[in-house]
Amino acid sequence: MYNKKMYNLGASRSVIRELFEYGNMLKSQIGEDKVFDFTLGNPSVPTPSDVNECIKRLVDTDLSIHAYTSAPGNLSTRKAIADYLSTTHGVEVDPTLMYMTTGAAAALTITLNAIVESPQDEILAIAPFFPEYRVFSEGAGAKFGYVEMDEEGYQIDFDKLEAMLTPNTRAVIINSPNNPSGIVYSEDTLIKLSSILTRYSEQYSHPIILIADEPYREVIFGDVVVPYPMKYYKDTVVCYSYSKSLCLPGERIGYIAVSPSLTEAQSLYLCICGAGRSLGYVCASSLFQKVIESTVGLHSDNSVYQQNRDILIRELSSLGLKCANPDGAFYLLVKVPDGDSIEFAGKAKQLGLLIVPADSFGAKGYVRIATCVSTDMVRRSIPYFHQLMEMYR
Ligand code: PLP
């Protein structure tokens, strides 16, 4: 009677949400302290106090915080972000090619709708990848495919990438630091990727757009450097979110930045404005645009994620489990002993350990453990991981 495609999307809940809701139910039955919920990427550290102070100040002093802004967002906000990006990464970022969005999900959806024209168009992701890329790509009317995982270094398997590029490939989505592996793509990876995409764009006589999904750019450990994709490939669109870097996932604020060097950049930007308009994604939160403008460059303290990573990697490795070693984000991608991630997560669930099978991330035989939880919970969970592995002895 109504739209079947949307019905199916609405009716099929994500594995992550389902486990998360199961966890809440279990907590109410057996007690919070007996459930170890590693499902959601909901940051556990506080929003920086300067951000909270800024919100209070704006609420008290700025009468325009609740007003509409222009559809792509305040130019002053875009200018502040563009200046920060240009200075930090040594690239030119043009505020008039930026569009403020309600988080990275909207940034990706708008960008994909701006690029996709025909049902033959293909969008490629690199495994492991955020499963919603499939929903966003198919929702924009494209076919979705992915390049299988490089199980050695979790970078990009370039032979597999080349084998998947076709004249219908419109865009490749990358995500670094990566959800779910936590891996950061090296400069060498970006140089190789750029060279391949440039070659195929020339061969197919249209640009293959690189969509860099970057919500974890500032969630990094130690002195890790995350190379800025615009520096390496001219046809780049950056989709960014403050959900993770400022721990503001519920406020829904982010942006799209089209590289000034992109082929017909102005034309793609107008497509982005059109897609934003047709999807109803105009004027992202006025209050949070102003907050970002005043606090640009700030990010939350990531030390707790690093501490959790270190404890879990040490303990899981001692149990014989192989994990990707993350330089950022707040997840661990763990290979399960017999390749059956559904069974592994099912056995873990019986012990109150809630972890996500990563098959829908293009990582068959792996599970994802979200490490954005309290270190106390991580420590208390360790004996249960031991019990879990006992089941495999
Ligand atoms: N991209 C990746 C890789 C993510 O992990 C997430 C959220 O977890 C998103 C995009 C969506 O981010 P947002 O909450 O800003 O819409």
Q: Could you describe the 3D structure shown?
A:
The chain contains 13 helices and 13 strands. It has 393 residues and is of the alpha/beta class. The chain folds into 2 domains: 4-47 and 301-390, Aspartate Aminotransferase, domain 1; 65-295, Aspartate Aminotransferase, domain 2. Helix 5 packs across helix 9. Residues 41, 103-105, 130, 175, 179, 213, 215, 241, 243, 249, 254 line the site of pyridoxal-5'-phosphate (PLP).
What is this structure's SSE topology?
Blueprint: H1 4-11, H2 15-30, E1 36-37, H3 49-61, H4 75-89, E2 98-101, H5 103-115, E3 122-126, H6 132-139, E4 143-147, H7 158-164, E5 169-175, H8 187-204, E6 209-213, E7 236-241, E8 254-258, H9 265-279, H10 286-295, H11 303-318, E9 322-323, E10 331-335, H12 341-350, E11 353-354, E12 356-357, E13 366-370, H13 375-390
Helix pairs in contact: 3-10, 4-10, 5-6, 5-9, 11-13
The structure holds pyridoxal-5'-phosphate.
State the main characteristics.
Aspartate Aminotransferase, domain 1; 42% helix; 14% strand; four-stranded antiparallel sheet; Aspartate Aminotransferase, domain 2; seven-stranded mixed sheet; 13 helices
